[in-house]
Every structure is written in C-alpha cells, then in structure tokens.
C-alpha cells in the first residue's frame, strides 16, 4: 500500500502478513479521496476510522493535513502497527484498541467523517448497526458523513441517511449524511 497524496505522497508501506486485514486498494482509495478532495478541507477535518486495520485510510487523511484522527481496531497487532507507522512518519493518529460496536456505544467523540471498513463478509444487520449507532448517537458534526466500504455483493442503499455509492472494482463506498428535517 502507498500514501497517495500530501506530505507523505508516494510513501510505500508494507504491513506484516500476520495482520487479519484487507487494505483498501490504492485505486479505490485514490478514487475516494478524489471525491473527498472536492468537498472537504482536509486540515479542518476530524475523522474516526473504524476497523482501521493497517491504518491505510488514517495515513491518507493525516498526510493531507487532517489533525484530529482516531483509528479504532479490535486487533492488538493492528493497533500496534498503526502506532509504529504514526511515530515513524510523525503523524498524530490517536489509536484505540476496541471492539467497534462497543466504541460507538460509549464514545463522546464527534467527527466530520466516520469511515468504516468492516469485513466484507459482515451480515447486513451489522452494517446497519454501524449506521444506526453513528446517527442515533449523533457522532457526526453538522454536515458530516459516514462512509462505509463494502463489497459489490452488499447493498446498503435502503439504509436511513443513504445518499449515494461509488464502485471501484470489488470495493464500494456507500455515503450517508444526516437528513435535513
């Protein structure tokens, strides 16, 4: 994996093979950040990265200047790897070892973007639970977005607050926003 843009543009990172992860492909990540680049000012963004894995998405936000980053993963070695890379690249990423659902139920953090990249084989009810927790607990700042990465075999378009999705190979990004009442 590599960092696409920002202060660490082109930096290649090699995650240990023992990590239980499926990092977002460079092609899909580049497409996602092209979308975000048109609508967001990265240095002003606060981001929560759920199921952070290798930290791939967090590094991209940090390299582009986002200062308030929180990466959540339940796997000790994933959290350890993110902390290691953050130190090496001097990136300010707050890492938390936690089950994502327990984190969402208890956190008082709010963010402009909550990015979730759960396992592609998740049951639909767990994708829905992520969405419901983010919106019911009001974890997004005004104008914030929930972005869920999932496989092309999963359809989240009937979830509350869904606005659109984009497909890149097998990866799909579904975008959710608070509805204006």
Protein architecture, described:
It comes from Salegentibacter echinorum. This is 16S rRNA (Guanine(966)-N(2))-methyltransferase RsmD. Keywords: Methyltransferase, Transferase. The chain is an alpha/beta fold and 181 residues long. The protein has a single domain, classed as Vaccinia Virus protein VP39 (Rossmann fold). The protein has a 7-stranded mixed sheet, sandwiched between helices. α4 packs parallel to α5. The N and C termini lie far apart (41 Å). The model has no long low-confidence stretch (mean pLDDT 94).
Structural descriptors:
single chain, 181 residues, alpha/beta, Rossmann fold, seven-stranded mixed β-sheet, 5 helices, 7 strands, 30% helix, 16S rRNA (Guanine(966)-N(2))-methyltransferase RsmD
Task: Provide the fold topology.
Layout: H1 26-37, E1 46-50, H2 56-63, E2 68-73, H3 76-89, E3 93-97, H4 100-106, E4 111-116, H5 124-136, E5 140-151, E6 162-168, E7 171-177
Parallel strand pairs: 1-2, 1-4, 2-3, 4-5
Antiparallel strand pairs: 5-7, 6-7
Protein name: 16S rRNA (Guanine(966)-N(2))-methyltransferase RsmD
GO molecular function: methyltransferase activity; nucleic acid binding
Keywords: Methyltransferase, Transferase
């Amino acid at each position: 994996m590599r960092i696409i843009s920002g202060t660490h543009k082109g930096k290649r990172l090699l995650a240990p093979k023992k990590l239980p992860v499926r990092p977002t492909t460079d092609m899909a990540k580049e497409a996602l950040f092209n979308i975000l680049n048109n609508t967001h000012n990265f240095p002003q963004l606060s981001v929560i990265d759920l199921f952070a894995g290798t930290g791939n998405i967090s590094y991209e936000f940090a390299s582009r200047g986002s200062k308030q980053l929180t990466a959540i993963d339940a796997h000790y070695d994933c959290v350890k790897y993110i902390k290691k890379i953050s130190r090496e690249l001097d990136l300010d990423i707050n890492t938390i070892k936690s089950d994502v659902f327990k984190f969402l139920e208890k956190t008082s953090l709010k963010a402009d973007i909550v990015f979730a990249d759960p396992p592609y084989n998740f049951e639909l009810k767990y994708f829905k639970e992520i969405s419901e927790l983010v919106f019911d607990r009001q974890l997004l700042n005004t104008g914030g977005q929930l972005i869920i990465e999932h496989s092309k075999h999963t359809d989240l378009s009937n979830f509350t607050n869904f606005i659109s999705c984009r497909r890149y190979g097998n990866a799909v990004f579904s975008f959710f926003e608070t509805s204006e009442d």
